[in-house]
């Protein structure tokens, strides 16, 4: 009798271990962040910008990309994070984006997590005739090469309800993680307006704004 109970117990333990193993999600090893000037912008002395990272951050490690990278590395020190400004490649012409240029940007990088952090430069006048939802889904499909990947997408940092509503709808139908950044730019000190004389630079996130963006995204992807 005791032997039967022992065997049943061992069987239950084995089944439990198998179930736990099956439920475990593979840790993120490669992260691709696609965005615009908030993600990365090279030096532009004519407008008072000398950095080569997320525009208006005081230094590279203070932009949202590198803040996120640091967070990912607390979970996996070998994680690879690649990022790109695709404003001209995709965002400004999302209905007919430049696949050749995008391929050069990605350069064979095969992400298991894609973070799409853009929308501010979408021409709203085209929304009624060109589907942004279709464009976003095509972007992710192209970048992932049709493979199953985890995706996180954010609404706009600067208030833009028309674009943000489409982003939310797209994320819901595609079952992506959706991060709502609407309202962050209105928080005190969230933009760098007081730090730059050029308005186009100053409206970008300050160090505080970058931290707020990184924190909101991390809440959505930390479990990965």
TrEMBL record:
The record ties this protein, via SUPFAM superfamilies, to: SGNH hydrolase
PROSITE patterns assigned to the protein according to its UniProt record, in alphabetical order: PROKAR_LIPOPROTEIN
Membrane spanning residue stretches: none
GO MF annotation terms:
hydrolase activity, acting on ester bonds
Superkingdom in the source lineage? Bacteria
The name this protein goes by in its record: Lysophospholipase L1
